[in-house]
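[step 3/7] fold_predict: job queued, chain A
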Amino acid sequence: MRLLAPAKLNLSLRVIGLRRDGFHEIRSIVQPIDLVDVLSVNQVEGRMEVINDNPAIRPAQDLAREAAVRMLEAKHRRNGVRIRIEKHIPIGAGLGGGSSDAAAVLKAIDRLIPPCFSSERLGELAARIGSDVPLFLSGGAVLATGRGEQITPYPTQRKCFLLVVPPVHCSTPAVYERFDRIGRGDASDGHFGQNDLERAALDLYPELVHYRAAVEALNSEFFGMSGSGATYFAAFPHTAAAAEARDRLAGLLPDSGLYLCSANAAGCEEGERCRLP
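[step 4/7] structure written:
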């Protein structure tokens, strides 16, 4: 089975407050995009095996591996799957690649080992793995609330996006910890491009200021930081405008990854259509 696991952008992200369970209450509009990881999942004889082609991802921190273990336990199996992951989504960049891979593994194993679970059961398993995992089980933009696991479809206009991925790995726990210390700064109203974590990320990783300024100077409809960073994005009405902006930044930010992407109406899905760097 071959699945495409899309990245996501937080078009807006509000942090409502700290919950009793230690997580943060959020309200975020999340848009899947057509930058994807590619997963091959096969049923085999023998032990479970997860092969990830990015050596920076440690097995103990691999959400895809955790998803496989939890899913096999739920199916009353211990072994019998081999998973290969071709990583194209940058890690530590606020794009949700690890969560998307986990959702793809849940879907694949559910289909390979019957009986199939209900969408509610899959959602419960996904939420135990990570707050972002459930949003990748559905297609299209969503409003994520609670700690991020409560998902409601959200209508958005189809946009093209230029992604700027600086050579900075942002730690989500560290950014939230800094947010708890310094707050969000100016009050936000949840409009596209507003992210309550941005001030904390910039305070923790001041080198991001340079990249933010470059994206802000583009003539985009709106721009912002995704998740806890480090990716910045700018939204454009069509591909030609986004490509022109990419060409402008190519000389200014030679150390950054620059990606042209479109909104993706699907979640993790089987198929060949994908956007690779």
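[step 5/7] annotate
Residues 62 and 185 are 33 Å apart (CA to CA).
The first strand starts at residue 2 and ends at 18.
exit 0
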